[in-house]
User: Fold these one by one.
Assistant:
Number 1:
Amino acid sequence: MKAGIVGLPNVGKSTLFNCLSNAKAQSANFPFCTIEPNIGVVNVPDPRLEKLEELVSPERVIPATVEIVDIAGLVKGASKGEGLGNQFLANIRETDAILHVLRCFDNENIVHVDGSVDPIRDKETIDMELQLKDLETVEKKLDKVKRAAKTGNKEAQKEEAILLKIKENIEAGISVRAIEFSEEDYQDYVKPSQFITDKPVLYVCNVDEGAATTGNAYVDKVRDAVKNENAEVLVLAVGTEADINELDDYEERQMFLADIGLEEPGSAKLIRSAYKLLNQQTYFTAGVKEVRAWTVNVGATGPQAAGVIHTDFEKGFIRAEVISYNDYVEYGSEAKVKEAGKMRVEGKNYIVKDGDVMHFLFNV
Ligand code: GDP
């Protein structure tokens, strides 16, 4: 699962990517690693992990991670192959969620590709390129289904009707994620098509340092423009955070963050939001050798959670011993939780909850 950073040139995408990639900002234990120049695996900052570390004193601590891709090169006309257009769109298709960076700061020295600062226009430019690509997909699908629909095939007629609805909406500038479908139609016909504009999105308003906690007039406009999209809007002073990250000393970094009104880097919040956007959650394993955060999809079962550690754990799953994070912290150790009768034994149908501390029993 990965999230892609998109936005027009010069809005702060690479600065944000570098900011996320700066290990100092997240965790001293596990440095960021770059798979390719534009792909990074970023630790998910999680205070619960620090708490468990404190209680268990393990040899090592391993955080959950999320993969972030910097997708450069989207310009007006990308869907027609302008710039790195097609490459860009191929990259974005492979992501599972979109972090859309919008320039919400004034600075005469930083040229805007369209000559002025206007995040709403920028958003529409990007949306349109993505929508045009989806329109191509819809038209291809319509071509395929048309003949079968004509011969009276009910299934094909249903699909055709849904595709036509999508086509009309896109032509009116509406992204697939904002179109209403019945749950069944969505699952059967829309979701499998993997439209680019159906991917969940989070808007990152890149502001100057004075607006890091308050936002500004540009941010207000963005909030207003996306209010029907069911999308989170994050305010981030990307340039300032990048500067703060340059400092080696932790205390000093915290001081500068406090100066702009923050307790932790906005990028930490962004990483957690991206993780959520990808529909992911964390369970923990806590032993003296290792305390570790593992990632599962929301809704995963006990065996699926075990499978994240090893496929054999999933195949041979017998049961899981589960302690909720809050109980773990309240009683202070596994033994004390057991004593208090707060450890649960769960079977194959158990739906994992965020923060569960788990131990699996399995056949080999
Ligand atoms: P990209 O093309 O979207 O990847 O944009 P960059 O990250 O390369 O940023 C373009 C320019 O804007 C660089 O000179 C950055 O230093 C600058 N920049 C990025 N974020 C901010 C910000 O929040 N405020 C200001 N004033 N400048 C920024």
Number 2:
Amino acid sequence: EAPLLEVKNLKKYFSINKGLLGRKKKFVKAVDDVSFTIKKGETLGLVGESGCGKSTTGRMLMRLLDPTEGQIYFEGKEISNLNDNQIRSLRKDFQMVFQDPYASLNPRMKVREIVSEPMVIHGIPKEERMERVEKLLTVVGLSAYHADRYPHEFSGGQRQRIGIARALAVNPKLIIADEPVSALDVSIQSQILNLLKDLQEEFELTYLFIAHDLSVVEHISDRVGVMYLGKIVELADKQSLYQNPKHPYTKALLSAVPIPNPRLKRERIILKGDIPSPSNPPSGCTFHTRCPLATEECRNKIPQVKEINPGHYVSCHLF
Ligand code: SF4
Ligand code: MG
């Protein structure tokens, strides 16, 4: 069966000067040759530090940003070359849940209007909208009587539930959740994650779940991709990635995740230095400035993505 979504060699380069007066045009390679698939009904976690290109990838999938190069296929059909009109009809199938439930809900709109908005855009009649809003609020763990309140009357977790109700309003096929729990208290995070997981089962949803922390996506993901400076450095099913990580960066990220069983002690790998500026990335393997295993080859040669086990992709000279 064809995947619901397929991304091939996706790139997004932003120019940071205009190349005038004989200056060399400079680019930030925000997303640099990223490929992955998402099957129907599955969750792909996409993890990396801020600035690694994960949100830019999500925004290209939503077609809020045009790719510089590469293709996006949805249900086998290329969507990276559509015009604005064609994109509009596609929007129904793609919805987004945002990081900040405080900023992403219009404070002057009642919950009813917020949740209805995508239905208005996609021409669902008023009567049906009103009925659906109340159902959706119940589905996300709120109640019909919340419909006539304003966002400021809700807690962060409740606001994120409203954001999720809005995302579900037009029966999307793919939900891109961009750090949907990062702004919430830890005690609330697992409630929202469980809600997303329940809704996935109930409505056969497919998720791209973006996070900066491997522990957040572990429970919800079927497969996980790890990004560093615009590239996916490792991608595997959850089991392989968490139990048998290969890339030194994945290992370092995982070593920072506390594990419930203290006898399975993992050695903490502390990475030296900060993440380099994407406008001036290191040569060769862009991780070499922080990698504890870097060699001369790493400084000079860009590693290619290799499939080292079925479905387990790594980009590192050690493999
Ligand atoms: Fe480290 Fe070299 Fe592998 Fe890059 S290619 S992750 S620098 S060992
Ligand atoms: Mg982001």
Number 3:
Amino acid sequence: MFPAGTRISVLTTQPLDRLLDYKAPEGGCRTGDFLEVPLGPRKILGVVWGEGDGTFEAAKLRAAYRVLDVPPMREEMQQFLVRAADYTLTPWPAMLRLAARAPGLSDPPSMKTLLLRGSETPSRMTDARARVLDALEAFDGQPVTLKELTDEAGVTASVVKGLVQQGVVAEIEAPRDTPYPALDPSLPGKALTGDQRAAAEHLAEAIRAGAYGTTLLKGVTGSGKTEVYLEAVAACLAAGRQALVLLPEIALTAEFLTRVEARFGAKPAEWHHGVTMTERRRCWRMVAEGGAQMVIGARSALFLPFRDLGLIVVDEEHDTSYKQEDGVLYNARDMAVLRASLCAAQVVLASATPSLESWSNAEAGKYRRLDLSSRFGPSVLPEMRAIDMRREELPATRWISPTLQRAAEARLQKGEQVLFFLNRRGYAPVTVCRACGDQIGCPDCDARLVEHRFQNRLVCHQCGLSIPTPKACPKCGAEDRLAPVGPGVERLAEEAQELFPEARLAVLSSDLFASARDLKARIEEIAAGDADLIIGTQLVSKGHNFPNLTLVGVIDADLGLKGSDLRAAERTFQQMRQVAGRAGRAEKPGLALLQSYEPDHPVIRAILSGDEEAFWRAEAEGRRMLAMPPYGRMAGIVLSSPDLAQAFGFGQALARGAGPLKEIGAEVYGPAPAPIARIRGRHRVRLLVKAGKTAPLQPALRAWLAQFRPPANLRLSVDIDPQSF
Ligand code: ADP
Ligand code: ZN
């Protein structure tokens, strides 16, 4: 306890590189308390980190305003933030921002009242008012904050206030946050098969032991991994501890919530950007107070203030979306392991196609490995075959080979569903001018604009720039000379419609749906039989279950193998196996056909052979020889600046001053253009640092970077364990 007026040290969310000293507020405070403190003229959020160290002049010390009425940060969370910051070389304030994402913490004033549909109709309908009413509808009658409403409707607060005065929108007092309905782990689960039971018992035992441990739970899609880890959740809840399940795709949560409800009698708490602020505030608080036993969420849920976290499940642990390439660069899988090790929890990494990292950690005995050997029930894994595109006759602007066409026809005639997979959104990846030869590019990025014909626009997939599709070439002005090059799902749909005029087509691509909810609804319709031919991007490769689907045609199996990325093989392997896993889930055997110009490529051969362990071993051996992750350590340093020469110059200075890295035997490569060389007008240059498996990489990086001061308009970000190298 720090009595009022004593010196405390406070971590704030401001981008400063040190803690700030204050006087403890009226009534005193404790370590971990969330505070409002002054900074210049502003009021900012902070956490009492400990006793002030006295370096700051006592006379200038200001008093903290007040302790916020929220559960204090536990010591374990402080440790987690520090360790995570150390690992990722992230400044502490950025870490705190992740942990203080509860709306009640960041913007308290707007939380007092909530809005919902009132009984009156507007005296006069305007566009803006109609949008407010639509938005309220979209929230399903749930009370929302003013900010949520104005954001969703795209109107100013005064439009909403006007409607409140007329009684069209009603105000209510924000309810106290209430605990979530209790989950009952003693309800009976499904009767498990032999290896499901063995796996579930292993996990339950580990959880009862109450110590840290990580398990790789491997099994093909449909083998019952979810059933098994729900038993682990049951054991965790029965032990009185909290469970967290991370899912890579929020579109999947609805289905998952239903399963949890069927198993435990109530729905768990949810945490992702699709959840209302009110609900997020409740989740944050209840997680801290123990009123939420189970949370399912996106990766940021790892930073929730659990009171007693006993289990973290990372479903589809190999999924690249667990590591987003912006903001704080962390991999949720690795942070889950760190977090669990600090609170004596178990981690379950579930996947049909584990990351090489997890696979090798299991090989090395660091993780326990449990395998589910077959699909549950009568379904079998689809047979996989290649179509050698060198032997197929088709024009340059066609992508469905005669062989694939025949196979699809046969299935469609039997009333079965067919999926064509192409991981390219839009109509065509490139638009070329046949007069001047120019390929229309984004003015701000190193990227071609992608035609989205359904919207009649050209879009940059890097920065989101979107312009109406021009009639004339922007470069030379020639009229009607622009031509699409290459296929996207929209163009593939056009071809498919011509080949299969009778088939009901569905295109599944994230940009074609306004919200995760719409997408989810469409997927359910399709699964229920409301389409014959599905054309989809990687969206379909994640967990959706289409029971009547029996044929998967991979339009371009070589797509992921191009480029110099060393992880390309691993990714392609995972993706092909995942997509193929969509076929034949019910009683009907599935077939996956991979169109490839290189059917003898080792990765394609490995995919077809189905010998996964052989693939992992070969891949691991290759990485080991090069001392690449996971057999060596890597970090990327990305420098971005509007001025390419400046970024390059600074990169060269970094490379020349790499003494601290040499001391640990690390090598520095670059500077070279980053994988995406320009985004939003900023040039990006990257250095790669490669060190031995046990080298103290982070301290060396810190010592190295501390020697330099980047120029004002240059941004430097450190990416530990980069996804591509
Ligand atoms: P995975 O997570 O490996 O994809 P799931 O746990 O989702 O597999 O199982 C696939 C399907 O099989 C689900 O509909 C699930 O309910 C069902 N299932 C799996 N195991 C059993 C079991 N032992 N008894 C009944 N149904 C099961
Ligand atoms: Zn762009």
Number 4:
Amino acid sequence: MRLPWQMLSRTNSVGQDAEPAPVNSPGHDDPRITEGAGAQVSRGANTQLSWAARTDVGLVRGHNEDSFLAQAPTFAVSDGMGGHAAGEVASAIAVATISEHAPVHADDLLLGASVEMANAAVINGAETGQGKPGMGCTASVVSIEQNKMAVAHVGDSRVYLLHNGALVRLTHDHSYVEELVDAGEITADEARVHPSRSVITRALGSDPDMYADHFTIDVSAGDRVLLCSDGLSSMIEDSQIEAIAVSSATPQAAVDNLVAAALQEGGHDNVTVVVVDVTDDGVIEQHRRRYLLRFFTVGLIIMGICAALFVAATLFVRNSWYVGANGDTVAIYHGVNASLLGHDLYALSETTTVQLDDLPDALQSSLRDGVVVSSEAEAHATIESYRDQIQTDKVHAQQVADKSTAGTETSQEKPAVPKSESEGEDDEADEGGE
Ligand code: MG
């Protein structure tokens, strides 16, 4: 059955009968609830966060209906309502359920779902006799993961963010006076002292279809996150919260000073404050990982290129042939006529009887540098062409030699011309010339 939260008052007068120990009291065997009713504190730290929490019954109420959760990366404040043996049960059920179902990562949708599960658990608790019918509570929850913070929220507890010295309220109160403020009918300061300031319009414990506001924002190293019940925000102004949050050196000092300030103003309500400092948002680590990833990626690419070039060069060398000099003879080589890092890129494949001296000088010079051929077969063909050339040259030289010899013999066999005729002709020629 849906309860009219608009009509629910969280007043709880002083002087009630002795109270049974709340389910989230110190010593309770549920370790997920780090602290509970009364004046209790909790603090802790990990590599990215440092936190502290304090809840105090205040100076007017007889018992503490607030609960909180400080279980990194999840932090929550829940303000119970419903009176004695009800409000504290509702808030304890809520934080226990949220603790169990909150996502590991900063996922605001799942965080909101955990609040909605808490709503079902509170409703079920009332129906099964745990607590009392009509009990309910608020829930303001954050989950911080590196530079992301998921927020889920129902009711008039609050989440603030202190960034660069300025305090910003992240949540919107689900309360009657907040609606009046939104409508421009009263100011925020007037809302704090309005007689209907305790009337809330959305809470856990009545409507099975209740939904949670949820969103995700960026946070950075140096930010301070503050969660509180209305026992703080209704007692001191946001400007005072900001001043104390800025001036407090540690989360522990911040929660102590904030609770003290609420008590100093009268402590009319239970007051609960959770402060979380973001000491490392993981951005530097992300940059380091990105740099390493880029470094290794570039390295792998360069190694891949080098490997491809090596394979290509190896294939090229293995498929290369040339004809070159091997001492005084011509030989066939496998590879290329070069060296790399002291290693020859060629190997002697076959020697021949072709003498370098039998070849033209220009060809001898080319052979000393290596005459590249396309295949071993072409190398053999080239060698044969050299043999043919040498043979041709030898034949030609022999023919020249034979002609020379024949010319000499012909000259020796030519008949002698009579000297008188010869002389006569010479004389006539001489006379004609003169
Ligand atoms: Mg309260």
